[in-house]
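Weekly sync, protein design subgroup
Attendees: M.S., D.O., the rotation student, P.L. (late)

Item 1: inverse folding check
M.S. brought a backbone from last month's batch and wanted to see whether the design step gives back something sensible before we order anything. D.O. pointed out we never logged the input encoding, so this time it goes straight into the notes. Structure tokens as presented (177 positions):
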């Protein structure tokens, strides 16, 4: 990996990770759109007439985050959109946690999780990761660096999935006590 900087590797790794994260989230929401609109309605942040259009806009925006990562020059706008979305999600969760409404499903995609501060913290960490990639963009990689970044991003995403499952298991354990 000659000529590959640590900043380029970090940016590329986070870009791969965020692409996988948002692709999975969009797929989960689109695959059962009716269920997802129920999650959006459960947050009670929007009038009922806006739930379906807002849900469709969320899915479209998540797909756009992924597509922008594939377009030359689209990485930074895609990551900024991802940061904004994660921030809105964290704010919606925090509002409902403060209201005492923690039994609603987060609607994040993947294993079901009731709202909790750990999910808000998770989103803040994800926002920080994406912001770091924005600050160090653009990345320049040779073929070996690209393979390493893909492998690193996939490994990071696998670790994220494992952590998400642990949080889900903890939620289930708390409910059965």
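Designed sequence read out in the meeting:
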């Amino acid at each position: 990996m000659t000529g590959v900087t640590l900043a380029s590797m970090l940016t590329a790794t986070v870009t791969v990770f965020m692409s996988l994260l948002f692709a999975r989230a969009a797929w989960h929401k689109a695959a059962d759109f009716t269920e997802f609109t129920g999650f959006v309605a459960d947050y009670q942040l929007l009038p009922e007439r806006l739930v379906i259009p807002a849900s469709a806009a969320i899915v479209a925006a998540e797909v756009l985050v992924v597509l922008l990562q594939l377009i030359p020059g689209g990485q930074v706008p895609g990551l900024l959109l991802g940061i904004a979305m994660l921030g809105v999600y964290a704010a919606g969760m925090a509002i409902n946690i403060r209201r005492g409404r923690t039994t609603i499903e987060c609607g994040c995609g993947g294993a079901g999780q009731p709202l909790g501060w750990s999910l808000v913290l998770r989103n803040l960490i994800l926002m920080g990761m994406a912001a770091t990639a924005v600050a160090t963009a653009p990345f320049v990689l040779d073929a070996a660096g690209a393979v390493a970044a893909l492998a690193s991003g996939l490994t990071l995403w696998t670790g994220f999935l494992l952590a998400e499952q642990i949080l889900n298991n903890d939620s289930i354990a708390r409910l059965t006590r």
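Discussion: The first helix runs from residue 6 to 31. The two ends are 52 Å apart (CA to CA).
Action: P.L. to compare against the previous round before Friday.
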